[in-house]
Design goal:
- The chain contains twelve helices and twelve strands.
- With about 400 residues, the protein is α+β, with helices and mostly antiparallel strands.
- The chain has two domains: about 5-50 and about 245-385, no CATH class; about 55-210, no CATH class.
- The longest helix has about 45 residues, at about 240-285.
Length: about 400
Amino acid sequence: MAIPIFYSYRNLWTRRLTTVLTVSGMALVVFVFATILMLAAGLEKTLVSTGSEENVLVIRKGSTSEVMSGIERDKAAILEALPQIAVGPGGQRLVARELVVLITLPKRGGDKPANVTVRGIGGASLLLRPQVRITQGRAPRPGSTEIMVGASIAKRFSGIGLDSNLRFALRDWRIVGVFDAGNTGFSSEIWGDAEQFLQTFRRPVFSSVLFRLRSSSEFPQVRSAIGGDPRLALEAKRENRFYEEQSEMMTLFLRILGYALTTIFSIGAVIGAMITMYSAVASRTSEIGTLRALGFQRRGILAAFLAESLFLGLIGGLVGLGLSSFMQLVTISTMNFQSFAELAFSFTLTPEIVLEAVGFSVLMGLVGGLAPAVRASRMRITDALRAA
């Protein structure tokens, strides 16, 4: 004979104080667990959405970032002549030579310095990235010392605004535009003319060449042609795949950190659940004896106490997830380990994180309640009634 499920819920309500304390501990663990996973998911989403499936990014073989890459002018000219490159409005070939360097700027509030990505653009750079929208001002003119800054840069760094001057690389640059690239890494960059940056930073080579294919299906052919040309020593990647790789190291670090911290904190939560359930068993010894005398079997007692513990874990998980969901309103910035540049991104709650967090909270309830439930089910009727 099975014990009605409401019996377990009623007992949790009767012991409201211990129930709230146990649920709070589990909720804290789930909050930490979900928040760190949301941090990793937000970083990954930001970098992956930065690139496009239709664009091809070419860098030097063995380079892990655009900052470490170098493409000479003659090699860039060979790439620009590829027949698979798409043609845009007005017959313009959708290809651009770009330069990427890092500078240090003081952050707003405290003047703490941070690395910022400066991207030299040219050719069809803006056409290749339709997600970039100029929200204030205009695009910099080719051949000038004009620049435009990403929305995240304008918000987080001091002395940056429309029509103001920004000094780096021993020159003053006029900010003529502010652009918003949505939830992508481009919003954390400064853009200007590539040729001007080459001269200013005394760089003899470009960092990358970006182009759009006539057809996405031509990518394997283009990759083989570029990778197999001994004159180039370059490699081609889909732009979205390149930025996905940029997030892998940081994402892995955050996930390992999340699992490690959660494991440590969960020990305390499990002990708390175990103490709560052992206390319930001790205070309900006579009740357990009565249930056994009425004909309820051992497995019914076991199931009832396990149900209480699992319910504690489930409620703790839902409360922790509810609290962590508010973190999606927060935007933070950190240094990307791959590019060593400042990157702003938001916490992202995904269905996978929800399932992992709820599953983990239920597991905590199971582990914390199993031993007390087994103890309750093994009580002999005479011993339980005598203890009363």
